[in-house]
Amino acid sequence: MNKVLDMRTPVASSGVRTFWSVAAIVVILALFVQAWIVVQARPQDLVTGAHGMADIISRAMPPAFDQFVPNLWPVLETIDLAIFGTVFGVLLAFPLAILAAANVTPAKPLYYAARAVIAVTRAVPDLVWALLFVTAVGLGPFPGALALAVHSIGMLGRLFAEVIEDMDMGPVEALTLTGAGRLQILSHAVVPGVLPSLLGIGLFRFDENLRSSLVLGFVGAGGIGFQLLTAMNLFQYQTVSFLLIATFVLVACAERASAYVRGLVA
Amino acid sequence: MNTLSSTSGALPLDPTGDRGAAASSVPAMAPRAKLVPGVKLAVRDLSMRYANGHTALRDFNLAVKAGEMVVVLGSNGSGKSTFMKCVVGLNRPTGGAVELAGRDLATLSGKALRQARLPLALISQNANLVKRRSVLANVCCGTLGRHKTLSTALGRVPREEIEPARAYLDEVGLLHLAAQRAGTLSGGQAQRVAVARALAQRPHVLLADEPVASLDPEAADEVMRLLRRLATEDGLAVVCVLHQPELATRYADRLVGLRSGQLEFDRPASAVSSQQIASLYLAEAA
Questions:
Q1: Between A and B, how many CB-CB pairs are < 8 A?
Q2: Residue B150's domain spans which residues?
Q3: Are residues B56 and B158 in the same domain?
Q4: Is the complex ipTM more than 0.85?
């Protein structure tokens, strides 16, 4: 009798599993369908709009390579927006991450405060931060740099804290028992243990910030994005295509450079 | 002091920037804490009852003299690790005293505990080295308790401790690896570096919690020989928790048997029979 029961039990649980699998698929399909309706998806427009796209592409050719020199400064601005945002973000995110890592935080209230700061800076998109800073300090690259920095604090703070929480605590315990103080443990055990991961994350963030800095130009925060918006508004599609090529080259170079540096510190 | 130190004149670049120190040739004599004969560590009626009601240690007594090596034996769950944790202050015992250099560690906490614990060094099952730092920098970390300066808080090693640290490395036979990253060491080498780091603390008492658990027989023998030498030649009081009865009988002066948190025997190693040791494990299995 027991044997019969034992054999039936897996069949029953398999049935339940099948039910939940079907239910999950139905829910996912329902979510997709409602998204389709809400975004008013009309695939036929892609077909009818192909002519317009082809027209824009033909007007964008050949790219205006004579715009190379006049756009060198905006390119530099874009790179510097990313550098400023990343460096500032890393410098502020690291101490915040120390406070927000459960295994090394000096006090629970500081832990919650740090987590709150990280959550707020992370939750608000960099574009919104840029709009706020443009209002506060005016147009130009500085509000863009501030936006990237503040958003980076949240993104990096959370990732740094996770790295610190996952670190091997053996050396920390060993140094604690030698009588080392909190700062000594931090600098002699925690930092050397997590530094490669933090540098890797910081470099990834630089990639992200470079891409973001292009978009931030659309709200008046300088860089190539601002040039792109201006060219679009003036229907200078050849300049637009050149700026898109410049953007592609810039992002690809930054990706290669950061991958190379990550390889060095790994 | 050790033949293995002979290659120290041609050391590679130290990954942490201790290049100059690591590359100089002959280390000075390894400094030691001034040790006077007598009991260095006394554990009196030590008891530990966890919050879940489990009594891990009951009225445990142990006194270890300078120059003596005591090995604590017992099966898993017999209370060995609890004993170690209570001694170093990681667990606060529910009863009894841990006397070290005239102070009861069981009554202290925070900064006072950190200060009072300085004459006591612990070597764990895992060497717990900072893998990305050099071997020499790891040894220097043992001195941080004596150097609470801004420089050491910023990650620098105390300059005046570099030469002694080299001497400790020489003592454990690893001076030639001073500039190497700790992460590249074998298990046995890492454990010997952990011993050097412990020595850099200039302790009176050296605790070793299963120091050879993850080592092959040859490396295990090497580490045990080193601990024995530190007791005999340097006069350290060594307390070692082991799971290898044959190593225990070979190297210890005294064997202490723990079963279910209680002292089963505390006798000279030569006076403990293999049956008595086996009974520690068999009784638990039954």
A1: 75
A2: 1-33+131-202
A3: no
A4: no
